[in-house]
């Protein structure tokens, strides 16, 4: 097992018993591994793989008049990839460094999904954007955030351009991430940022201030979830990249308001 | 970044294209153009299927362990990223021979999330699945929270042994139980000497100064438990074997198998220097090593 071009090594030990020994000694063969007297499988190549599972594109209306909600979210998704480098750096310090790619590719895919028919209701646009975000660059963050947005969209009532609706949406997304990922408040994850923002009322400036404070407070604690938790006390002093991603999203949201 | 690649974003797909072109009689895609690969004879009636998966960048894990007496299918994600639930479901449908499918992979949040969704998708189509996770890295969590540890090179033992159990005709519950037993009895710890560069990111995932090493590193460059001066091979073996055996707590007189694994750039020579010391340490604990032991990259 490798980690691309990393140098280093690991040592594994398996405590055997009679049955495990017999199975370990059994013949096996793949193009990369062979053990015992058996040849690599070599059958006649199949006539052709079965058809790709089609993703329906019927009912697309890319030329439809976008709702105000769609225009605003698309404007934010267009600039979010600019934070990829910052998020990659933060994530490389705490995890595996793929959050920049996840946010950049996820934002592009979510935007593409919404543009297929930007005239749809906010709930349907959110559902499509969440599903696209989750699968664009599959990762824990993408799956949890994208899946939570899909779930929260189902419960959405109203237009998230209404600050009260937006606040409820952020709480709903946080609840779903906690339920699926197990993160609790204070675990130093994006959940903390979502809850801080949702608890700060309906003024976007106040929400952004609260989320920024949550990011800074979190930096003083240890990470309790995901890869970052493996660092244990060494995570103290580092800002959580998921929390910073939400902060940047809100800042971009404010910037598009004043355009 | 010095890599022999084309478009960084095509890294995973072009890797898969090359492997399929080289081994057309051994591996095939589950669906056209997809990232789910299965044994060329996948779907044998009555045999339990084993599907694994994870990010690319770990060869020969994961797709290198798809073959006779091993796994039956794999879903390949982007570099160090989980495969999607749909890719996992594609692999599952292709390998199911009516006896059910075991999901066998490393303990990572994104993978668990997507394999769980895939299990829901195929359950609706009548395919039964079970899950066994590799969580062998002793550096990633203390023994008290062993279930939260990440899965690293020790998962190769689970592929080999569960694969043999499925090949001899065990049922799904039996294959899953064997895989979990291997997991309970496997421990791993590693050390990193230089970082990884993700093709699409272009930057090292962490920085190590000349003469430093990261003790307890993960397979995605996750920092370990301690960073210090680079030590000799014997000192490194003492650290790794000591931590692994203390955690495993094997009764004196028992038999073990040992795997020394390279992270990609470390030559076999150095791995055998580690093995030399590891074998001595294991003997000193009154344990015997089952031959053949393997040193792989």
UniProtKB/TrEMBL annotation, chain A:
Residues 1-33 form the DhaK domain. The keyword Aminoacyl-tRNA synthetase does not apply. Gene3D superfamilies: 1.25.40.340, Dihydroxyacetone kinase, domain 2. Transmembrane segments: none annotated. Keywords: ATP-binding, Kinase, Nucleotide-binding, Transferase. This is DAK2 domain-containing protein. Residues 67-255 form the DhaL domain. It holds the Pfam family Dak2.
Automatic annotation (TrEMBL), chain B:
Signal peptide: none annotated. It comes from the Bacteria. The keyword Signal does not apply. Residues 7-297 form the DhaK domain. InterPro entries: DhaK_dom, Dihydroxyacetone_Kinase. One of its GO terms (molecular function) is kinase activity. Keywords: Kinase, Transferase. The keyword Glycoprotein does not apply. This is Dihydroxyacetone kinase subunit DhaK.
């Amino acid at each position: 097992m490798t980690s691309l071009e990393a140098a280093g090594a690991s040592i594994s030990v398996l405590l055997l018993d009679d049955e495990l020994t017999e199975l370990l000694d059994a013949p096996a063969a793949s193009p990369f591994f062979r053990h015992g007297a058996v040849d690599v499988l070599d059958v006649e190549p199949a006539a052709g793989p079965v058809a790709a599972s089609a993703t329906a594109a019927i009912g697309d209306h890319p030329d439809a008049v976008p709702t105000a909600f769609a225009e605003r979210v698309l404007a934010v998704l267009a600039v979010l990839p600019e934070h990829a480098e910052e998020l990659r750096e933060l994530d490389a310090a705490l995890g595996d460094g793929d959050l920049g790619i996840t946010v950049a590719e996820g934002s592009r895919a979510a935007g593409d999904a919404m543009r297929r028919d930007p005239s749809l209701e906010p709930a349907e646009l959110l559902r499509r954007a969440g599903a696209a975000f989750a699968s664009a660059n599959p990762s824990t963050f993408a799956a949890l955030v994208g899946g939570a947005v899909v779930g929260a969209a189902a419960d959405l009532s109203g237009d998230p351009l209404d600050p009260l609706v937006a606040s409820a949406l952020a709480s709903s997304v946080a609840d779903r991430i906690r339920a699926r990922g197990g993160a609790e408040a204070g675990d130093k994850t994006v959940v903390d940022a979502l809850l801080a923002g949702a608890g700060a009322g309906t003024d976007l400036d106040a929400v952004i201030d609260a989320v920024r404070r949550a990011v800074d407070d979190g930096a003083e604690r240890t990470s309790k979830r995901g890869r970052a938790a493996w660092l244990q006390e060494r995570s103290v002093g580092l800002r959580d990249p998921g929390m910073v991603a939400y902060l940047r999203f809100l800042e971009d949201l404010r910037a598009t308001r004043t355009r | 970044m010095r890599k022999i690649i084309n478009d960084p974003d095509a890294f995973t797909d072009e890797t898969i294209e090359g492997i399929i072109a080289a081994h057309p009689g051994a591996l095939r895609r589950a669906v056209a153009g997809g990232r789910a690969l299965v044994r060329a004879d996948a779907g044998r009636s009555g045999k339990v299927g084993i599907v694994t998966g994870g990010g690319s960048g770990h060869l020969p894990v994961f797709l290198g362990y798809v073959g006779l007496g091993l796994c039956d299918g794999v879903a390949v994600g982007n570099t160090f990223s989980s495969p999607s639930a749909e890719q996992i479901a594609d692999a599952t449908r292709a390998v199911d021979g009516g006896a059910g499918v075991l999901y066998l992979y490393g303990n990572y949040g994104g993978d668990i999330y997507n394999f769980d969704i895939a299990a829901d998708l195929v359950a609706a189509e009548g395919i039964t699945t079970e899950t066994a996770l590799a969580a062998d890295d002793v550096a990633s969590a203390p023994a008290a929270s062993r279930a939260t540890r990440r899965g690293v090179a020790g998962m190769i033992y689970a592929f080999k042994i569960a694969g043999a159990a499925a090949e001899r005709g065990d049922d799904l519950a039996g294959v899953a139980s064997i895989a979990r037993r291997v997991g309970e009895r496997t421990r791993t710890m590693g050390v990193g000497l230089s970082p990884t560069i993700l093709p699409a990111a272009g930057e090292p995932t962490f920085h190590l100064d000349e003469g430093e090493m990261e003790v307890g590193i993960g397979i995605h460059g996750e920092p370990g438990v301690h960073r210090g001066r680079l030590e000799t091979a014997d000192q490194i073996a003492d650290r790794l074997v000591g931590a692994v055996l203390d955690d495993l707590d094997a009764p004196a007189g028992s038999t073990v198998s040992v795997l020394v694994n390279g992270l990609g750039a470390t030559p076999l020579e150095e791995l055998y220097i580690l093995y030399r010391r590891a074998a001595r340490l294991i003997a000193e604990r009154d344990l015997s090593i089952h031959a053949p032991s393997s040193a792989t990259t």
